[in-house]
Automatic annotation (TrEMBL), chain A:
This is ABC transporter permease. The keyword Transport applies. Belongs to the binding-protein-dependent transport system permease family. Its main location: membrane. The chain crosses the membrane at residues 83-105, 117-135, 141-160, 236-258. The keyword Cell membrane applies. Residues 71-255 form the ABC transmembrane type-1 domain. GO terms for cellular component: plasma membrane. It comes from Nonomuraea terrae. It is found in: Cell membrane.
UniProtKB/TrEMBL annotation, chain B:
Residues 18-232 form the ABC transporter domain. It holds the Pfam family ABC_tran. It comes from the Bacteria. This is ABC transporter ATP-binding protein.
Length: 271, 248
């Protein structure tokens, strides 16, 4: 069966992850079945390679791309972009949410412009960014930072404002300073919502990366995919897409891991 | 000694844990507290009875410094601690950290540990609050209040949500802790028996005023069937607008 001999990046990255989580192995069954169907369709000629390469061909290409260094290089470039954009966006999103969440004045100053900017179509900004920043790394990283900042801002702000007022009273009765209140009550109380925001923003981040890399890039995963299109290499395109998938899965898993550790106090979360 | 809360606040009179004169509190047009005079001596156990809506929780919140809109002369010892009806433990802090939270001075963790030992929770130091039973959580809340060595301990219906058996053991625990540490206590409750079993003095709050006051000059532990208590209970129930014959 193709599904067992395949060494798709998605599978190889996701599998050890899931095996560590008891009971989630069942979740692999239907994706593997779909993969088998796909292989079957390709082998019988139902699905021409011009439209979509067979899983086995994709796997072989993936190995080639890895051993030739093409994929690792492209991956490194893309990861660098995401890391830069995510860092800037996360610091901005969480920082602004702290300003808005921890005081009324901050809310009035920060929240209205954030709500207005949020309404802007992110990808509609690309032409402006190209005019402002050219076609180098800056517009890509800026777009990423913006995409990441909003989900984190909204969720962190909501999380801070959603902290139980009764616990704030406890803090007052226990004579906590404002700093202690924020550190011991407000931030940990907002954390579950912040982590929801983190997952959303990572999802948006990968999406923005893909779009930004399609626009104009001379390196990275997006470039690898675009280049493959010129030569009708659907196998390379699929490898690129699977790498994007795997990256999304890995970061999502990392956040979930973080959630399980940071939110261990929530009874029932650990199952 | 710093003062807490309200307008025109002052320190409590000498020997008192709290001194309140002419306390009023309105929410919009509704006057919830209409001129309260109240003294709680150091080491005195006072119970405050009242039907729901009588303003008893409002009074406790004023004394706790959680209500800054109240008016009147309000003197409360700076060392005031509160235990609420819901234990209000910080769910993301383990039991020991909850008790040590905000604790100043020498060895906060050691003192928190000792306080938890006093309420019999040595085994649960590292438990998450959400894994505790109602009685256990309430004991943590008591330990968190007591570890601050309060001159005034405010208890806002702390046993209201507990089952009857747990409540009995909590009554013993509170008496035990009170006898050992001797804080002034204001226990807000709607349970007449609870007030009579525990307090030196029982106040009845009605329509924002202290409508009645009974001393309970009986040695502890008290038995609810003691004939003096039976007579006091009947009187208090009548004050609360309940026919004692019907509840018997």
């Amino acid at each position: 069966m193709a599904s067992t001999e395949l060494d798709l990046p998605a599978a190889s990255r996701a599998a050890p992850v899931r095996w560590r989580l008891p009971g989630t192995g069942w979740r692999l069954v239907s994706p593997l079945a779909l993969l088998a169907l796909w292989q079957l369709a390709s082998s019988t000629g139902l699905l021409p390679e011009r439209l979509l390469a067979a899983p086995s061909a994709v796997a072989a290409t993936a190995l080639d791309l890895v051993s030739s260094g093409t994929l690792p290089e492209a991956l490194a470039v893309s990861l660098g972009r995401v890391a830069a954009g995510f860092s800037v966006g996360a610091v901005a999103g969480v920082g602004l949410a702290l300003v808005a969440g921890l005081s009324r004045a901050g809310e009035y100053a920060v929240d209205p412009p954030m709500q207005m900017l949020r309404a802007l179509p992110l990808f509609g900004l690309i032409p402006l960014f190209i005019l402002w920043f050219g076609i180098g790394e800056t517009p890509k990283v800026t777009l990423l930072a913006l995409g990441v900042a909003f989900p984190l801002y909204l969720n962190t702000f909501a999380g801070i404002r959603g902290v139980d007022a009764k616990l704030a009273e406890v803090a007052e009765v226990l004579r906590l300073s404002r700093g202690e209140l924020i550190r011991h009550v407000v931030l940990p109380g907002a954390l579950p919502q912040v982590l929801v925001g983190l997952r959303q923003s990572l999802g948006v981040g990968w999406l923005v990366l893909i779009v930004a890399e399609q626009v104009n890039a001379d390196s990275g995963l997006g470039y690898m995919i675009n280049d493959a299109r010129e030569f009708l290499r659907t196998d390379v395109i699929v490898v690129g897409l699977l790498v994007y998938c795997a990256l999304g899965l890995v970061t999502d898993w990392l956040v979930r891991l973080l959630e399980r550790r940071a939110l261990a106090w929530r009874r029932g979360l650990l199952g | 000694m710093a003062t807490r809360a309200a307008r025109l606040s002052a320190e409590p009179a000498a020997g008192q844990a709290a001194t309140v004169r002419g306390l009023t509190r309105s929410f919009g047009d509704r006057r919830v507290l209409g001129g309260i005079d109240l003294d709680i001596a150091r080491g005195e156990f006072v119970a405050l009875l009242g039907r729901s809506g009588s303003g008893k929780s409002t009074l406790l919140r004023v004394l706790a410094g959680l209500d800054r809109e109240a008016r009147g002369e309000i003197g409360v010892d700076a060392a005031v601690a509160v235990s609420f009806q819901e234990p209000r433990l910080v769910p993301w802090k383990r039991v020991l950290a909850n008790v040590a939270l905000g604790l100043r001075g020498h060895d906060p963790v050691g003192r928190a540990r000792a306080a938890l030992a006093e309420v019999g929770l040595t085994k649960h130091l590292n438990a998450w609050p959400l894994t505790l039973s109602g009685g256990e959580a309430q004991r943590v809340s008591l330990a968190r209040a007591l570890v601050r060595e309060p001159a005034l301990l405010l208890l806002d219906e702390p046993f209201g949500a507990l089952d009857a058996l747990t409540r009995i053991s909590m009554h013993r625990l509170v008496l035990d802790l009170w006898e050992r540490h001797r804080p002034g206590i204001l226990l807000v409750t709607h349970d007449v028996d609870e007030a009579l079993l525990l307090a030196d003095r029982v106040l009845v709050l009605d329509e924002g005023r202290i409508a009645h006051e009974s001393a309970v000059p009986l040695a502890r532990p008290r038995h609810r069937d003691h004939h003096d208590l039976v007579a006091l209970r009947a009187g208090l129930l009548r004050r609360l607008g309940v026919d004692p014959e019907e509840t018997a």
